[in-house]
Specification:
Elements lengths: L1 H10 L7 E5 L2 E8 L3 E10 L2 E10 L6 H14 L1
Antiparallel strand pairs: 1-2, 2-3, 3-4
């Protein structure tokens, strides 16, 4: 996951397959893990920085609204 975050941070702006927009100023770093698992780290940007807000192992095809809401609340706390 760290290498994927680094790739997005230093390649910004970067699109799929490494990064995807979620709306509301949120983006996700997309990572593949062992055993066919998928992880996501939701982040926002501000003042030239990448702010990591929430990470989770994805279990459904669509990113759950609850995971996005956690990141959105955290984004409001830091921006």
């Amino acid at each position: 996951m760290g290498k994927d975050i680094q790739k997005v941070e230093f390649g910004w702006p970067i699109g799929r397959p490494h990064c995807a927009p979620l709306g509301k100023g949120l983006w996700e770093v997309r990572s593949s893990l062992d055993s066919n698992r998928i992880a996501r780290v939701i982040f926002c940007t501000g003042d030239g920085h990448m702010v990591l807000l929430h990470g989770f192992v994805k279990k459904t095809q669509k990113t759950p609204a609850a995971e996005i809401e956690i990141a959105f609340k955290r984004m409001k706390e830091v921006t």
